[in-house]
Amino acid sequence: MSAMNDAREVFPELPQPGLSGADAARLLTDVGPNVLPAARKASPWRKLLGELTHFFALMLWGAAGLAWLAGLPQLSVAIVVVVVVNGVFAHIQQERAQHAAERLQGLLPSQVRVRRDGRQRSVSASELVPGDVVILTAGDRLPADLRFTSASACTVDESMLTGESDALPKAVGDAAWGGTFLVNGQAEGVVTATGGNSRIAEIASLTNTTTSPPTPLTLELHRIVRVIAIIALTVAGVFFAVSVLVGIEWRDSFLFAIGVAVALIPEGLLPTVTLSLAMGAQRMASRNALVRNLEAVETLGSTTFICTDKTGTLTQNRMNAVEVVTLEGTARVLGDGYEPDAVLDGPGRRMALEVAVAARAASQGHAVKEGKEWVANGDPMEAAIDVLARRLLHQEPDNQVPDRRFAFDAHRRRESVLLGPTLYVKGAPESVLPLCGDGAARLEEQVDAMASRGLRVIAVARRDLPGPRSFWLDQPAENLERELVVLGLIGLHDPPRPDVAEVIRAARNAGIKVAMITGDHPATAAAIAKEIGLTDDPRLVVQGADLPEQEQILGALLDRDGVVVSRVSPEQKLRVARALQSRGHVVAMTGDGVNDGPALQQADIGVAMGRGGTDVAREAADLVLLDDHFGTIVAAIEQGRATYSNIRRFLTYHLTDNVAELTPFVIWALSGGQFPLALGVLQILALDIGTDLFPALALGAEPPGRRVLTRPPERRHLMDRNLMFRAFVILGPVEAIISMTAFSVVLFGGGWVRGEPWDEQLVLAASGAAFAAVVFGQLATSFACRSATVPPWKLGWFSNRLLLWAGAAELAALVLFLYLPPVAAVLGQAPPPPSGLIVAVLAIPGILIADWIYKRVRQPKHPIA
Ligand code: ADP
Ligand code: MG
Asked: Which segments constitute the Cation-transporting P-type ATPase N-terminal domain (predicted)?
C-alpha cells in the first residue's frame, strides 16, 4: 500500500479519507457481509422431538402403552395419533412464531455513517468492510471492531463483552469492539474486523446459545395448563376408583379414566397462544410498531400510563428558527422548512447573523438538498440553525473542523466547540446564561415570553480564549466554558403533529393517562401541551428539579392525566416510571437518549425511536416506533388489547367443550354404568384435535374490535373467574344438556328402557347425535366467543372471514366423521336418525340464546374480551 497509508499506521490521528466506493465493494465480496454468523440453532427435528416428549406428551405415551397392554389397541393408536398430531401442530406454530419474530428483528434500522470517497455517507451496517472509516456519536452501537482515529471525550460501554459496568474512556489509537456502545463523546475509527472475525463473534461461538428466562406470560400460561392438568388427572383418578368400586371391569374403567384425562388436558393451548402473540406482533409491525419480544404484545394491552417525550413524538421534529433575539433587538425570519430562502424582518440583522454563525459552529447537523427538497441531516434543531445561517448569510457558510468538541448531553444541556482561538457555546438558556457576563440578564427576561409561545429557546455565546492555543487543548470543559460573552437567543418552532390531539383523546377514551416528559423549558412544554390538548392547567406543569424526594408523594403528584414534567434528567425519568408503577400503573415510557436505557428498562414497556433515537435506547426498549410517532404507541396498545382478548376468546372456546365431553362420563359413573356412555374417548379426541382446531385458530386472528379503545384497561389473569364462569357454568352446560338430550331422544326413541341391556347399533346412532350436538354447539360457541359483551349478530357475520372458513371446515369434518362408515366405526358412532339430528342442531340457537341472556344480565362495566 502507499506511503500515505503507512504514515497513517504510525500517526493514526491523521485525517482518514476512507475507502473508495469501488474498493469497499470489492472488499465486501472478499470478506463477506458484516453480520454475525447465525447462532447455532437447535435442528427442527430436535425441536419436534421436544414437542413429542414434554411432560404431557410423555403422560400420553404412557397411557398409550398401558392401553396397548390392556388389549385396547385402537385406543392406543388413537392416543399416539393425538400426541403426534398435536406435536407436529405445536411445532409448526412455534416455527411460524419464530419466523415472525426474526422478520421483525430484520426491520430494526441499522445504518452507519462512513467516510467513503472522501465524503460522509450512510450505509447499512452489513456493508461495512475492514478499512472503512466509521463516524460515531454518543448513543451509537459500534458496528464492527475498530481502532479510533479521532476521539473526543469518548467513553465506551463494554459491559456486553466484559461484564464491566462502568464505561471506559477511549483515546485515539485505542481499539474497541463491535456490539459495544459509545456512551459519550464523538469518534471516528477505522474498521479492523467485521462479521465472523469480530471479537463478539468469537465470544458468541464460545458460549453456547443462551436460553432466555421465562417471561411472566409464559409463567402464567404454564400455570393455567398445570391447573387444568391437575384437575384432569384428579378427576380421572376418581373416575377410575369409582368405576372399579361399582364393579366395572378394570379395563373398561381404565379406558374411561383415560378418556376423562385426555378430554380435559388442553394440549394445544401453549402453541396457539404463542402463535397469536406472533400474529399480534406482525400486525403491530404493519402499523410501524416493532415489538422486540412477543411478551410485550400482551403487556401493551394492559398499559395504563404513557409517558411520552415531546420533540419528534408529539411534534414533527421539523424545526424552524423563527426568531433571533440580541441586544440590538429581535429579528424575525419567515421561511419554509429547510429552504435557505426566507423573508427577514426587524432590527438586529447584523447581530443575528453573528448569533447564527456562532450557533452553527457549535453544531453538527446540517441541511442538505436531496433532489429538489432541503432536508435535515443529523439533529433537526441543528439543521435549522444551519438553515438560519444560510438565510442570513445568503451564501454557503464555511465549514471548519473544530479542534475540540464538548458534546450535548441531557445533563449539561449545552454543546461547545473550540475553533482556533474561539470557543462557541449553544444550549438551554439556564445552562448557558449563568456562564455569561454583561447582557445575559437582559436576554434572560425574554426567555419566558418566547417559550410561552411554544418556541424552543437556545442561548448562544462565545469566548475568545487568552494565551496560547495549545494550552486550551487539554483543559477540562469547566475551564473553557466560563466568562462567556452572550450573543443572543434563537427561538425555534416545532409544529405539533397534526393528529396528535385526536390520538390523545383516543388514549383518554381508552382510560389511559398521558404525561409529557421533556428536557425542554417548562413554558415551551406548557405551550405545546396546550396546543395539542394535553392540558391547559399550569398546575400540571412541573420541573424535574422540583420533583419531591419521596416516592409516594411523587407518585401522587404525577398520577394525573396530562401532567407535564419539564427540564427532566434521565435519572428523574427513571424515578417517574418507578413512582407510577408503585401506584399500580403499567407504564409505557419513551426515551431516545444515551442515558435513557435505565428508564426504558424500568418501564413495563420501554419505547424507543426507530429514526431519531440512539442505538442504546433501542437496545433497552421493548417497542420501537419505526415512525417516531406518538399515535403508533396507541395503535400498538390497541393491537395488544385485541391480542389479549383473542387469547381469552379461544381459551373460553376450548374450555366450553370440555364440559360437554366430561358430562357423559359423569352420568355414566353416577348411574353405576347403567346408562350407556354418550361419547367415547375417540370421539372426544376427534372433537379436540379435529373439529375444534380451525375455529380456535380463527378466533386467534380476530381483528381488533371497534370498541377496543373505548374501555379502560384491565389487569387480570387470563383465566379469571368471569372466563371460567362463562365456559363452565353457562356455555358448557348448555352444550352438554343439548348433547345429552340428543343422545337420549335417539336412545329412548329407539325403544331402550332403563335397566334393560341396550342394542349396540342404537347406542352408536345415539352417540352420533350427541357428537353432532357438540360440534354444532362449538360452532355457535366460536361465534359467541368473538365478544364478551355483544351477541354475534351485532358484530357482522363477515367481519372475521377466517372464522367462516373454519366453521365450514368444522361442518365438513362432522359429515366425514358421521357418514364415512370406516371413520364412523373407528370413532364408535353411526349416522343419527332425524330426531337426533334435529335436537343436535338446536345446540346452535341454544348456545346463542344462553350467551345472549348471559351478556344481557351481566352487562359488565369493563369487559376486555
Ligand atoms: P426533548 O425532551 O424535547 O427532546 P432534549 O433533552 O433533547 O429535550 O433537550 C433539552 C434542552 O437541551 C433543549 O430545550 C435545548 O435547550 C437543549 N438542547 C437540545 N439539543 C441541543 C443541542 N444539540 N445542542 C445544545 N443544546 C441542546
Ligand atoms: Mg431531544
From this structure: 10-72
Residue 557 main-chain phi, psi, to 5 deg: -65, -40
Domain ranges of the chain: 1-207, 225-265, 268-288+642-865, 290-314+497-628, 325-404+411-489
Amino acid 840: pLDDT:
97
CATH, domain 268-288+642-865, list 1.20.1600.10, 1.20.1110.10, 3.30.930.10, 3.40.190.10? 1.20.1110.10
Name the nearest CA neighbour of 742 among 847, 850, 833.
833
Residue nearest (by alpha carbon) to ligand 1 atom 3: 311
Selection from 669, 728, 625 nearest residue 312 by Cα: 625
290-314+497-628: CATH homologous superfamily? HAD superfamily/HAD-like (3.40.50.1000)
115 lines ligand 1 (CB under 6 A): no
Å from CA of 411 to ligand 2 middle: 12
Radius of gyration for the alpha carbons in the chain, expressed in angstroms and rounded: 34
Quote the DSSP letter at residue 496.
B
Cell of 401: 473542523
Q: What are the residues whose beta carbons fall under 8 Å from the beta carbon of 204, sequence distance 6 or more?
A: 36, 37, 39
Which residues 6+ apart lie within 8 Å of 751 measured at CB?
762
**Cα-to-chain-centroid distance, residue 38:** 23
Q: What is the pLDDT of residues 811-836, one digit of tens each?
A: 999 999 999 999 999 899 999 999 99
For 674, the 3-state DSSP assignment is coil
pLDDT at residue 269 tops 80: no
The cell 398445570 sits on which residue?
A: 226
Alpha helices by DSSP H, listed for 622-753, are 630-670, 681-686, 693-700, 721-724, 732-749
Does residue 145 carry a catalytic annotation? no
User: Which cell numbers in the block locate residue 596?
Assistant: 435513557
- Paired with 167 in beta bridges are none
CA 507 distance to own-chain centroid: 17
Closest CA to 194 of 100, 264, 257, 123: 123
C-alpha cell at 343: 423573508
Mutate to test the pocket of ligand 1, among 444, 458, 492 (most ligand atoms within 8 A of CB): 458
Is the domain 1-207 a CATH 2.70.150.10 member?
yes
Joined grid coordinates for residue 373 = 427538497
Contacts of 195 (CB under 8 A, 6+ apart): 31, 32, 33, 34, 35, 36, 37, 144, 201
Ligand 1 site, residue 734, Cβ cutoff 6 A: no
**Superfamily (CATH) of domain 325-404+411-489:** Calcium-transporting ATPase, cytoplasmic domain N (3.40.1110.10)
Across 331-340, 398-407, 797-806, least confident range: 398-407
